[in-house]
Specification:
heterodimer, A: Rna Polymerase Sigma Factor, Chain: A, Arc Repressor Mutant, subunit A, 0% strand, B: alpha+beta, 2 domains, 6-stranded mixed sheet, 6 helices, elongated, binds zinc ion
Chain lengths: 199, 200
């Protein structure tokens, strides 16, 4: 949990952050309900990020989210509740997904039939076009390097400032800008190629 | 700078990720270059599609599943910091058992052995109600699980000191089980170990 100490210094807390500080304090003292509330607050962030980093494999994303929250629980005592831990969670999510991707390279995951592109809102026919676009973007994300993908997901999908993305990824702002711009160009070219093919 | 070199700048430009000076340079180029204007328009489109992922719907059951798995696992877990003390305590128990078996036959009384685990400075001064018999106290310092017959020395390394304090009362000794109380730095972690007088 040393890495948490590297994450930005605490700023003046607003109301939701104060609530979070209290939740973390309660969770530290073994209050499972408080820990569950923290999970509820951050599950969308963690699962969504994992899904985009891992390539729309829901089971893997769920597995990653579990690992992230278990790491959070293990590190609770060392967690400084007065410091932002959103960044810490992003960092752990990126690290967990990176480790999973490396294992996947060594031992390719066996995809169960129908699980990889399953709609997360079953039966929503009217969302078909949107769903196709989503799949197109996931395919485009697959063309990126691991670093480009992480930088793009954090900047463009999570809306985190470039400076903070650099902190989370443990790299320089200049490097993040390079990764973000090359990733955007690759996405644009991939989408363009696919659109031409369909015409 | 040619158009290819402008591509990555335009990719930052469309999301307002450029400095003012860089923005001016890109805008000037776009005014004169149709290809780059098209490229910028395409980028805005693909960026909009990319951001469409933010609206990707998730079934609540997915979150419920993750939550229940995590809560199920952490509910059965001791608070953090427990593992290293558990290892230290296990070593201590093994050592205490060995010590008990090889104890001198001479009067060893107080049916309670108090063991303390933790860094030197926090070590509590042992109190005995029978100072005269304190000479019966056997000290042993363990470092990395190896017994050394020298007195307790301050060190941050894993160290357990066992104090076996004696008060002669042979009857009590043979009729009651020996109680080993293991204190750790964590006030919530206190381990009691009952030792059968017949060598258990
Ligand atoms: Zn141009």
């Amino acid at each position: 949990m040393q890495e948490l100490a590297l994450v930005m210094a605490g700023e003046r807390l607003d109301a939701p952050e104060e609530q979070l500080v209290l939740l973390v304090k309660r969770a530290k003292s073994g209050d499972i309900a408080a820990f569950e509330e923290i999970l509820g607050r951050y599950e969308r962030q963690v699962l969504g990020t994992a899904l985009r980093l891992l390539g729309r494999n829901l089971e893997d994303a769920k597995d990653a989210a579990q690992q992230v929250f278990l790491r959070l629980h293990r590190g609770l005592r060392q967690l400084d509740e007065n410091r932002q831990f959103e960044s810490w969670l992003y960092r752990v999510t990126v690290n967990v997904c990176r480790d999973m991707l490396r294992v996947r390279i060594r031992k390719p995951a066996v995809q169960l039939e129908g699980t990889e592109h399953r709609s997360y809102a079953p039966g929503a026919d009217e969302m078909m076009v949107h769903s196709e676009q989503i799949q197109l973007i996931y395919d485009a994300l697959d063309t990126l390097s691991e670093r480009e993908r992480a930088a793009l997901v954090l900047r463009d999908l999570e809306g985190i400032a470039t400076k903070e993305v650099a902190r989370i990824l443990g790299t320089s702002e200049v490097t993040v800008r390079c990764h973000i711009s090359s990733a955007r160009v690759k996405i644009r070219k991939f989408v363009d190629r696919q659109s031409r093919r369909r015409l | 700078m040619n158009c290819t070199e402008f591509e990555e700048r335009i990719a930052l430009f469309v999301e307002n990720d450029l400095s003012d000076a860089e923005v001016t340079a890109v805008e000037r180029h776009l005014e004169t270059c149709t290809d780059c204007r098209e490229f910028a328009a395409g980028l805005r489109e693909s960026q909009a599609m990319l951001k469409g992922l933010r609206r990707e719907p998730f079934d609540d059951a997915i979150f419920a599943d993750v939550r229940s798995q995590v809560i199920g696992r952490v509910s059965n877990v001791r608070p953090p910091m427990w593992p290293k003390y558990a290892i230290a305590a296990t070593l201590l128990i093994v050592l205490a058992a060995a010590l008990w078996r090889t104890r001198p036959a001479a009067p060893v009384g107080l049916p309670a052995v108090t063991a303390y685990i933790g860094p030197g400075p926090a070590f509590p001064t042992p109190r005995t109600t029978a100072p005269r018999q304190a000479s019966q106290i056997a000290k042993m310092t363990v470092r990395h699980g190896r017994a050394q017959s020298r007195p307790h020395v301050n060190s941050r390394l894993a160290r357990q000191t066992i104090q076996q304090a004696g008060l002669a009362h042979p009857r009590a000794l043979h009729s009651e089980p020996l109680v080993v109380k293991l204190l750790t730095n964590d006030p919530e972690v206190v381990i009691y170990w009952l030792v059968d007088q017949n060598g258990g």
